[in-house]
Amino acid sequence: MRIILVGPPGAGKGTQAARLVERYGIPHISTGDMLRAAVKAGTALGKEADAYMKAGDLVPDAVVIGMAVERIGEADAQKGFMLDGFPRTRPQAEALDAALSAAGVQLDAVVLIEVDDSLIVERITGRRTDPETKRIYHLKFDPPPAEVADRLVQRKDDTEEACRARLAKYHGETAPIIPFYEDKGLLKRVDGVGSPDAVTERLVAALGG
Ligand code: ADP
Ligand code: ADP
Hints:
It is a single chain. This protein has helices spanning 13-24, 31-41, 44-55, 61-72, 90-103, 117-125, 146-149, 160-174, 177-183, 196-206; strands at residues 2-6, 28-30, 81-84, 109-114, 127-129, 136-138, 187-191. With 209 residues, the protein is of the alpha/beta class. The protein has one domain: Rossmann fold. Strands 2-3-1-4-7 form a 5-stranded parallel β-sheet, sandwiched between helices. It has a two-stranded antiparallel ribbon with strand order 5-6. β5 and β6 form a beta hairpin. α4 (61-72) packs parallel to α5 (90-103) and α6 (117-125) crosses α8 (160-174). The longest helix is centred in the C-terminal third of the chain and has 15 residues, at 160-174. The chain binds adenosine-5'-diphosphate (2 copies). Residues 9, 13-14, 31-32, 35, 52-53, 56-59, 64, 85-86, 88, 92, 157, 166 line the site of one adenosine-5'-diphosphate.
């Protein structure tokens, strides 16, 4: 299965991708995770991406497209993948289309997880991640067990200010990919409000089981 998860920051893409990739046996490809790993490792790509990410801006297409297309070409992604956070602009969607056509493969679905803007800031500012297991928690909506609470980290871009910038980028630059996939008959809309389990059920139903 070749699936794309789209949605505003905090929609639950990372949370749901972690669950779905186990169910479908495909790799989870998150450009946000890849970029954060590059920043941490101090690579040239990471150094270029760092300032954009901190400010809540998008990393330039030329940087992200090469990284994502290369990752999709790796052995574990040949039978399928779940893309989370890519594509995020119209040029990225077009570049992905060209790369998949060249490889002779097609997407199965593009799932849009819909969450109203009014809920996003609280979701983002309460997000914490376990650096050991990579599990995503929320201080209020998905509280961590006491034994991991001390080691949780907060992303540098999960401030209210950067969150608002990301939300504006989402509406300005990412939302235009929605009609692109709608025209191809690939788009499925799923309500992202409710418990994480309820959202997983809706996603599985939208993906045909
Ligand atoms: P979120 O969980 O808020 O949706 P991500 O972890 O997917 O965020 O991305 C974090 C940041 O990494 C983005 O704000 C952006 O700076 C950068 N980034 C991730 N994916 C892309 C992409 N496809 N194009 C441009 N920038 C990206
Ligand atoms: P994204 O990858 O789309 O930015 P995440 O999966 O990281 O989103 O979720 C953002 C925050 O919202 C996290 O703290 C997560 O625990 C929480 N969250 C995820 N799904 C839900 C949900 N259905 N209801 C409430 N909070 C949620």
